[in-house]
Write a structure and sequence with these properties.
By secondary structure, this protein is an alpha+beta fold. The protein has 14 helices and 4 strands. Helix 5 runs parallel beside helix 7 and helix 7 crosses helix 8 (117-125). The chain is elongated and about 170 Å long. It starts with a helix and ends in an 8-residue tail after the last helix.
Length: 337
């Protein structure tokens, strides 16, 4: 550079200006290749995807990663699908997964499942894995329920576990219920079927009756799945709930009877205490009245209303009465003092 500067000066060219221009050109080329994915443009042209330089620059301006749009377009074109870049950009800007949507469309086309781009985008934006849904439509999934306890009419508890084979329903993925609803409905169907059985032995002998009954209830209505089969994997006998309930009821009745008996005993004791108090009160009155008899007799003597002969007649009547009472009771009469 230093060696060429005298030559440029002799030719009338400013070496400083030339160096600045060269540096600017180099920076422009570097920025151009950084801002514009030329390699991606070449790959798209080689794959038959019509993407212009202006479109790639526009993606950069719209803050869209060109690789997220062009690479799925290349896959779709190779698979025979025609999807415009504008639709892919719109789905990307809406927060969708463009690559997953294109993969789902390709898988659906290969499996012969009717699925268009708009429907696939709606499923993806709804938060569901559209590619997994397509794969589940081809390869059904088996959902295993937890242990479900149900009681037959004879009071015996049965603990069952079921395996539900489901297939994704593409048309109901948007707004349809998930696996939790399927498990809950199957559990409800098992409880209802076992509960309507007269004996737990009937269920143990024919566990497939549960599958037929539950499957016929249309449990997949309003869900994102289609139930293909319900298989009872295991049935165990649990507790005798009926006997336990009877024991608990008998214990409760016993406690109630004991409480009522205790209440009656307490009332009887209170009544007895009241009667004793009443008798004691009557005895006190009798004693008080007997104590007043000598005073009354003395008052009668003083007032002249009672004579000596009348007094002796009263004593004879009392002795005669006492003798009769002794004869009736078999006791010996007390000697008179």
């Amino acid at each position: 550079m230093n060696a060429t500067m005298p030559i440029l000066a002799a030719a009338g060219i400013d070496p400083v200006s030339t160096a600045l221009i060269a540096t600017g050109i180099i920076l422009f080329i570097i920025l151009f290749f950084v801002f514009v994915p030329v390699g991606l443009l070449i790959s798209a042209s080689a794959s038959g995807v019509k993407v212009g330089l202006v479109q790639l620059i526009g993606m950069r301006i719209r803050k869209v990663v060109p690789q997220r749009i062009v690479n799925p377009m290349i896959k779709a074109t190779k698979a025979g699908l025609s999807i415009s870049s504008n639709k892919l950009e719109a789905h990307y800007l809406a927060g969708g997964n463009v690559d997953r949507v294109v993969n789902a469309l390709i898988a659906a086309q290969r499996a012969g499942i009717p699925l268009d781009f708009e429907q696939s985008c709606a499923i993806d934006l709804a938060g569901r894995d559209v590619l997994n849904a397509v794969q589940m439509s081809v390869n059904p999934k088996v959902i295993e329920t937890p242990v479900i306890a149900a009681i037959a009419k004879d009071g015996i508890e049965l603990r069952a576990k079921a395996k539900v084979t489901v297939r994704a329903n593409i048309d109901r993925l948007v707004g349809g219920a998930g696996e939790e609803t399927i498990i809950a409905r199957v559990g409800e169907g098992i409880v209802t079927t076992v509960g309507s059985s007269l004996s737990h032995k009937d269920v143990l002998e024919n566990p497939d009756s549960i599958s037929r009954t539950v499957l016929g209830k249309g449990l997949d209505s309003g869900t994102a799945f289609e139930i293909l089969s319900i298989d009872i994997a295991d049935v165990d006998v649990g507790r005798n709930i009926g006997a336990q309930l009877q024991i608990d009821q008998a214990e409760a009745d016993k406690r109630i009877a004991q409480a009522k008996a205790e209440e009656r005993r307490a009332m009887a004791v209170a009544q007895e205490q009241e009667n004793k108090a009443s008798v004691q009160g009557m005895r006190a009155k009798v004693i008080e009245a007997e104590a007043e008899v000598p005073q009354a007799i003395a008052a009668a003597f003083r007032s002249g209303n009672l004579g000596v002969m009348d007094y002796y007649n009263l004593k004879n009547i009392q002795a005669d009465t006492q003798m009769r009472e002794s004869i009736s009771t078999g006791a010996k009469p007390e000697a008179k003092k």
